[in-house]
Design a protein that fits this description.
By secondary structure, the chain is an alpha+beta fold. A hairpin with a 4-residue loop joins strand 4 and strand 5.
Length: 107
């Protein structure tokens, strides 16, 4: 699943998409994509709750923030990650190395 999320992230960064175009492209790659935001962040739905220790994310030089409707969100210098229950939202602006560390925490 990590590799698939990295492919989705790379696809989102490929060009300057319109949100609906990116959503169509990402759904071709993964049926778990449920939405794409105006900022071209994408939301994935999993079968089980996403389990990430918020403190571990903050240790990656992040700061807790609020991103509606997610209960847990961490913003970094560039980009953010948010999660609640079975949903995970990933900003396309997040640093690639940081994304890899976040995915290691999830999987």
């Amino acid at each position: 699943m990590k590799e698939l999320i990295v492919r989705l992230y790379e696809k989102a960064r490929e060009k300057d998409w319109k949100p609906w175009e990116l959503q169509d492209e990402l759904r071709k790659l993964c049926s778990n994509v449920v939405a794409v935001g105006d900022d071209l962040s994408f939301v994935l739905k999993f079968e089980k709750d996403v389990a990430i220790d918020l403190n571990e994310l903050i240790k990656l030089n992040g700061r807790k923030t609020k991103i509606y409707p997610y209960k847990n969100a961490v913003r970094f210098d560039r980009g953010y990650v948010a999660f609640d229950g079975k949903f995970l939202r990933i900003s396309k602006d997040i640093d690639e190395k940081r994304l890899a560390k976040i995915l290691d925490l999830i999987f």
